[in-house]
Amino acid sequence: MGLLDYVTAHSLDEDYAQAAGKRAGAGGEQPRGTRRRVPTLVALAVFGGLVATAGVQTARTEPVRQSSRESLVAQVEDRREELAETRQQIDVLEGAVEEARGQLRETTRVGRALNEQLETLGLLSGTEPATGPGLRIVVDDSDDAADTRQVVLDTDLQRLVNGLWVSGAEAVAINGQRLTSLSSIRVAGDAITVNLQSLTRPYVIEALGDPDQLAARFIDSEGGTWWLNLKAVYDLQFSMSSEESLTLPAAPTPTLRHAHRPGADS
Amino acid sequence: MIGALGLALGVVLGLLLQPDVPFWLQPYLPIAVVAALDAVFGALRAFLDGIFDDKVFVVSFISNVLIAALIVYLGDQLGVGGQLSTGVIVVLGIRIFSNVAAIRRHLFHA
């Protein structure tokens, strides 16, 4: 604090006081002619000039700064567009590659067998879109959800989906998110996420399978009884309908971590 | 009176001529302005205190501007120009504030 105190206390140059003291010592006022005022005038004029010049300088560089900022923003936007276009191109090319691969396999007998195998495996693993008859279940929080116990939890959805698998569902998706062996259903913040995508209510669960058997088996399964219970006790919304044709999208392709040639030892 | 005249003259001259500041001088201009501002407020306070002296004002004005520019120049050469400018601005700022406070006391008796 000493330094600050010093600066504040000596904010006025001591020379003024000394000069005044000398003047008083020399006896009375010194002659204050106009000539003596000239340096002050010049110094103040210089000060005014400095201020004006600095202001003009700043004002002059401001548009340059502004325009360079704008051009940067434009560049960022351009690059983003480019990136989006490139990504789209990647998608298109990947599709083409996949198609070409399929066609190539189609040309040989072994390849055709492989294609069929791939399709079956893809349906089961969720990497291929699936279409067929099935069951659509719509669940939602209670209409007058005053209590946190009256909202759908991640564990409720987990039980429901597990019930569907047990009942013989071939493919399951929640709000268009296909479930695979690597999918997770869990709460993150206020929302339930599936495949790391957060869902919005209501939750629509679609399952492919024999519609008659699937519905009956599901009601009998653990998940089914759990949900009938939730509906009765906590007034959660639950409705089930059989559909002639449902289309489930493919799950996001997992990263390939390990591969080996069929038949080769690994 | 003569002070206001000189000030107006300088501002008008600066605006009319719009002198081009050489590039190497540009970083020192704002610091010089702040240092000059300190000298001017000091002079105003001295004037109100009744101890104003032309010679002291001119000398303090010139030395303030030169020393402030010199410190920043030195800092630039040493690679601590930004920090030294901050230091100079802080000290000059404190001086300006306390001088203005004294001026305010003189003018409004508050």
Note down, in words, how this protein is organized.
The complex is a heterodimer of chains A (266) and B (110). Chain A is an alpha+beta fold. Chain A has helices at residues 2-9, 14-26, 34-106, 109-125, 154-166, 211-220, 222-234, and strands at residues 130-140, 171-174, 177-178, 185-188, 191-194, 197-198, 203-208, 237-248. In chain A, 55% of the residues lie in helices and 17% in strands. Chain A has a five-stranded antiparallel beta sheet with strand order 3-2-7-1-8. In chain A, helix 3 packs across helix 4, helix 5 runs antiparallel to helix 7 and helix 6 (211-220) crosses helix 7 (222-234). The longest helix of chain A is centred in the first third of the chain and has 73 residues, at 34-106. Chain A starts with a helix and ends in an 18-residue tail after the last strand. Chain B has 110 residues and is an all-alpha fold. In chain B, helix 2 runs antiparallel to helix 3 and helix 3 packs antiparallel against helix 4 (81-108). The chains are: A alpha+beta (266), B mainly alpha (110).
